[in-house]
Amino acid sequence: MEYNMLQSKNKVWNIIPVDEKYDCFLGNIISYAQSFSINYEMGLLGTWGFGYDTNNEYSIGEKINFNFYNAIENLKFFHGIKLNRYLLYSSNELENLLNDKLMNGPVIISVNTYYCPWCLSYKKYDLYHYILVVGIKNKKISFIDTYFASNNVMEIEIDALSFTSGIAFTFEKGLTECKNEDYICILRKTLKNIRKTQMINNLYNFKSDLISLESFDNELGIYKNDLTAVPIIVKLNYISSYRKNIHKALNYIGSILEHQTIFRHVSFLFDSLGIEYLLLKNKLIKQMIIGDIDQKFNLKKINAIIDLEKLCINEISDILSSFD
């Protein structure tokens, strides 16, 4: 595969950040894919669902967790985008890896936003995050941040990141030979995983904890002055984005199989789900600002979300039955 380099003060990869809101990890992958005209939509299918840890005393937001294994596998199988993962234990290891791997493409690295001047959490609290490094010169990296920053390429000294340990991902592009039945097969696998991981039960547990709240103190924690960083707000924002991801993935499958009509309604439902999660998130922010929990609204909204998730599961199941 041929890559184009953008000539600037430093030599950097010409990556155009996505103009939509994804989480910090997926945003980097999609920016890479779009910049080199590579499809990525099947990776989005792997973002449906979430876990909920009831075996701890964390805040509600901290109980919500995600697993991107299926998203990464789908990217590789359907689009030929392979992510190679590296564990790093020092800033020297980070620098060496960047000097070596940036010759072949951009590199995703994890950072602590406590040391990132462009983030609201700078010098306030730890928040682990991903950026996409597009160049390096004289211990200074050029990068984009698809989540917290503008579309501009920024620069920072590696030492300023106070990197002690973390993760990096490099990209590798290969060929794919997908058949139409593979798209139906992965949809079956995705639905099976939703049931296996008991996502609906996780939603009921989330509902139980949410309507039992008597104050937001435990949810706010150290983020009282930055409500957008409160874990429950961050996670609901992610889930909203992920449901809209499924909307895109289903439209893509429909176009590949030339069955757009059969996926149209369930795709619309996932888009509606994204809106419902977003409305709940926005309402919770307002409740946190005024310090008053609106349990009537919260109960009504989470019930609507559960009903919609169930409807999506049933409609996907019906669609799959039509391909038997």
Descriptors for this entry?
6-stranded antiparallel β-sheet, single chain, two-stranded antiparallel sheet, alpha+beta, flat, 324 residues, disordered N terminus
Brief overview, please?
The protein has 324 residues and is an alpha+beta fold.
Shape: flat
Mean pLDDT figure: 92
Low-confidence region ranges: 1-10
Helix content: 40-55%
Give the tally of β-strands. Answer: 10
Strand content: 15-25%
What does this structure look like?
The chain contains 11 helices and 10 strands. With 324 residues, it is α+β, with helices and mostly antiparallel strands. Helix 6 packs antiparallel against helix 11 and helix 10 packs antiparallel against helix 11. The N terminus is likely disordered.
Protein topology:
Layout: E1 5-7, E2 11-13, H1 24-35, H2 41-44, E3 51-52, H3 60-63, E4 64-65, H4 69-79, E5 81-88, H5 91-101, E6 107-112, E7 128-137, E8 140-144, E9 154-157, E10 166-173, H6 180-196, H7 199-211, H8 217-220, H9 231-257, H10 260-290, H11 295-322
Antiparallel strand pairs: 1-2, 3-4, 5-10, 6-7, 6-10, 7-8, 8-9
Helix pairs in contact: 6-11, 7-11, 9-10, 10-11
